[in-house]
Write a structure and sequence with these properties.
Number of strands: 10
Largest sheet: 8 strands, antiparallel, barrel
Radius of gyration: 24 Å
Strand content: 25-35%
Order of helices and strands: HEHEHHEHEEEEEEE
Shape: globular
Length: about 200
């Protein structure tokens, strides 16, 4: 009798283990298939500071950005003049505003990752960013430990052909309207611009 009970117990345990292993195998198989296809996987996490607070309208913080862009007085004069001329050709700092809106359906409209495949497959946020009255689809991913916005624009008639990206981080305040957004470049040797929440 005891032998029979032990046999049934082992059978049930083995059955449970086999079911768990099957789920793990199927999950890994699905993930590997998506990885091979470079497909994007929407993975929103409310504990991700940037993903949970990026949505809204942000206006440049001129004082803080000026401080971040300040160059060393010993820097080559010609190089500094070229930088200042280039900056003047851009939109004046005080007029620079960027808006992020959430739209989870954007992920399904984007092509498989190509040159940005090293950014990974997990998409923590997707939607549209609007700057200078132009609207672009974007995704928020992790790349080399940094949160990075990848946005898509038109090239050669294809509205999603060209991709650009920038590193992004947020300093969350006690009150939401005091949050600060910092936008950098593609790499860690480029200075950031600071934005304060407008909406």
């Amino acid at each position: 009798m005891l032998t029979w009970v032990l046999y049934l117990s082992c059978t049930r345990i083995n059955s449970f283990i086999m079911k768990k292993l099957l789920v793990i195998i199927l999950t890994c198989s699905c993930f590997c298939t998506n990885a091979q296809n470079n497909e994007l996987i929407y993975t929103y996490d409310k504990q991700n500071v940037v993903a949970s607070k990026l949505i809204g309208t942000w206006k440049i913080d001129v004082a803080l950005t000026t401080l971040l862009l300040k160059t060393d007085d010993k820097e080559n004069t010609d190089l500094r003049d070229k930088k200042q001329k280039k900056e003047k050709e851009k939109t004046p700092l005080e007029q620079l505003t960027i808006e992020f809106t959430k739209d989870t359906t954007v992920v399904g409209t984007l092509p498989p990752l190509e040159k940005n495949q090293e950014a990974g497959l997990a998409v923590y946020l997707s939607g549209y960013l609007t700057v200078k009255e132009k609207k672009y689809p974007f995704i928020l991913v992790e790349h080399r430990g940094n949160m990075q916005v990848v946005w898509y624009r038109e090239r050669d008639g294809n509205p999603l052909r060209d991709t650009e990206s920038f590193i992004v981080t947020i300093a969350a305040a006690k009150e939401k309207y005091n949050d600060l957004l910092f936008i950098g470049g593609d790499f860690n040797n480029q200075p950031f611009k600071a934005f304060k929440r407008e909406k």
